[in-house]
Amino acid sequence: MKKILIFTFSFIIINTISGYAFGETARRYMIITNSVFCKTAPSSDSTDMETDIGFGSVILGEKVIQNETDFDYIKLSGKKDCYVPLEMTIEVPLVSFSSEKGALSSENGKDLPIFFVPDDLMPINKMYSFGDNRVLAKKSILKDLYAMLSDAKKNGHKFYVANGFKDLQVRIKEYEEAIRLNPKQTLVPKPVHSSSATGLVIDLTDNVTGSNFEYELKNDKAWKWIYENSSRYGFRTSGKSYRFEYSGERSRRKPKTDKIFDEAINKRIEIPSLCTVHVLKNSTNKRASFIWVHHNEKSAGKTLKYALSKYGGHSIYIINGDKRNVYIPYNRRSYFIDPNRIYTPKGIEKYLDRHHRKLNKNGRRSIYKKAEKLKDTILSSIDWTEKKYLIALHSSRPGSDFSIEEFNAKNSYLTYTNPDHNPKNLFFTTSLQDYYFFKSRGYNVVYQRSIEDDGSLSIYAAKNNLPYINIEVVEGDDKFQQKMLDLAIECVNQHFKEKSL
Ligand SMILES: [Zn+2]
Question: Structure pTM?
Answer without folding.
Answer: 0.56
